[in-house]
């Protein structure tokens, strides 16, 4: 009986830790990455990432009631310009320019999301989209 309780307790602990990491941490597991990118692009009305995008990083924050995804990638200036032209919410959007940093604001977002921002600085793009 004691052995069964220890096994059950251990399994419950593992499930709780995994649940916490899955829903409340900033970790995006490899099997979640494609869906996180798709969701972020949908919320922002953005085109698919450039085929030659490099150093793609995906993070998340929030809880069960709100979610923010942050995607970073590097690409050539030409690829980024093409991506902006193909993105319905960026192509006619005038960015705020501060030095070499261009910030596109997307409020409200698509599909009932809150929206967010897209920052372009040299060859690096950072997308931050939220839903609540």
Question: What's this, in brief?
Answer:
By secondary structure, the chain is an alpha+beta fold. The protein has helices at residues 2-23, 30-44, 77-86, and strands spanning 54-62, 67-74, 96-98, 101-106, 115-121, 124-131.
Describe the protein in words:
By secondary structure, the chain is of the alpha+beta class. The chain has one domain. It is built from three helices and six strands, in the order H-H-E-E-H-E-E-E-E. The chain has helices spanning 2-23, 30-44, 77-86; strands at residues 54-62, 67-74, 96-98, 101-106, 115-121, 124-131. It has a six-stranded antiparallel β-sheet, covered by helices on one side. It starts with a helix and ends with a strand.
Keywords, please?
6 strands, 132 residues, 3 helices, alpha+beta, 36% helix
Oligomer: single chain
Which value, in Å, is the CA radius of gyration? 19 Å
* N- and C-termini, Cα separation: 45 Å
The residue-averaged pLDDT reads 90
User: What would you call the structural class?
Assistant: alpha+beta
Low-confidence stretches: none
Number of domains: 1
Strand order of the largest sheet: 1-2-6-5-4-3
Number of DSSP helical runs = 3
Q: Hey, roughly how much beta strand do the residues contain?
A: 25-35%
Helix-strand pattern, N to C? HHEEHEEEE
Overall geometric form = elongated
Largest sheet descriptor: 6 strands, antiparallel
- Helical amount: 25-40%
| DSSP strand count | 6
């Amino acid at each position: 009986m004691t052995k069964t309780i220890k096994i059950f307790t251990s399994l419950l602990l593992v499930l709780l830790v995994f649940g916490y990491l899955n829903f409340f941490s900033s970790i995006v597991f490899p099997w979640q990455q494609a869906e996180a990118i798709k969701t972020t692009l949908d919320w922002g009305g953005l085109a698919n990432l450039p085929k030659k995008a490099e150093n793609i990083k995906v993070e998340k924050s929030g809880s069960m009631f709100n979610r923010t995804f942050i995607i970073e990638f590097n690409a050539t200036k030409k690829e980024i310009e093409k991506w902006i032209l193909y993105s319905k919410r960026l192509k006619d959007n005038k960015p705020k320019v501060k030095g070499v940093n261009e910030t596109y604001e997307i409020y409200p977002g698509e599909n009932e999301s809150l929206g967010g921002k897209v920052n372009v600085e040299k060859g690096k793009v950072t997308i931050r989209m939220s839903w609540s």
